[in-house]
Amino acid sequence: MKIDGLDYNTEREKLRLKAYGRDIQQMVEHAVTLPTKAERQRCAENIIETMKRVVPSQQSYKERTPMLWYHLALMSDFKLDIDYPVEFEHEDKMATPPEKIEYSKETVPVRHYGKLLFGMFDKLKQMPEGAQRDALAVETAEQMYRSLASWGFGSVDKERVVSDLARFTDGKIQLMPEDVHVSAVGAGGEQKSNGKKKKK
Fold first, then answer.
1. CA 154 to chain CA mean position, Å
2. How far apart are CA 185 and CA 177, in angstroms?
3. What's the chain's average pLDDT?
4. C-alpha span between 151 and 59 (Å, rounded)
């Protein structure tokens, strides 16, 4: 049933910013229709003061001013012709969607070692034999051990680590289990002490 003089919000034009309410939206629409720029400017400044009271904020006026003027422009559908005291992006620029970020499609043979470790494997394959390669190989093996533990593999043994390292470096890196100097690792990937306290 339709009653004269009574309408519902569902039948009204959708508010651009609900926080300020319909009264301020109507004030903005009235400001757009004013014939002179001076009148529109004066009306806009009064609307800004009203907006400050309707939606209080902990921000200082200086911090809040750009947002208030931008909201005023937005409620007018950017049709309010006045001298804005701040600069902001026009709606057509804001409506332009940002460029899509492409996710890396690069895959690794086993996820628990990750791209970083496979980069280390490639580097080890290209390095000449020597102390530098040996040191990097041990460091890589120790990180492999920690990665396996952090992924929740129940039984992490050094034999598996050195075997995987040899496999992923095409047999160029051959370590012994005792070369991997790493403490026992807990379920969360944290290193556990052996229970002995260091003497001071």
1. 33
2. 16
3. 78
4. 45
For the ranges 69-83, 92-106, 111-125, 152-166, which has the lowest average pLDDT?
Answer: 92-106
- Write out the two tokens for 182: 């790493």
Question: What region, left, alpha or beta, does residue 199 occupy, with left being phi > 0 and alpha being psi -120 to 50 degrees?
Answer: beta
- Residue 10 in tokens: 């569902």
d(CA 137, CA 141): 6
**pLDDT at site 86:** 85
* Displacement of CA 126 from its chain's centroid (Å): 36
Give the CA angle between residues 40, 49, 52 to the nearest 5°: 135
With contact defined as beta carbons under 8 Å apart, do 165 and 137 qualify?
yes
Please tell me the total number of residues recorded for the chain in this structure: 200
Predicted pLDDT at 110:
72
Which pLDDT band holds residue 134 (cuts at 50, 70, 90)?
A: very high
Q: Is the Cβ–Cβ distance between 180 and 162 less than 8 Å?
A: yes
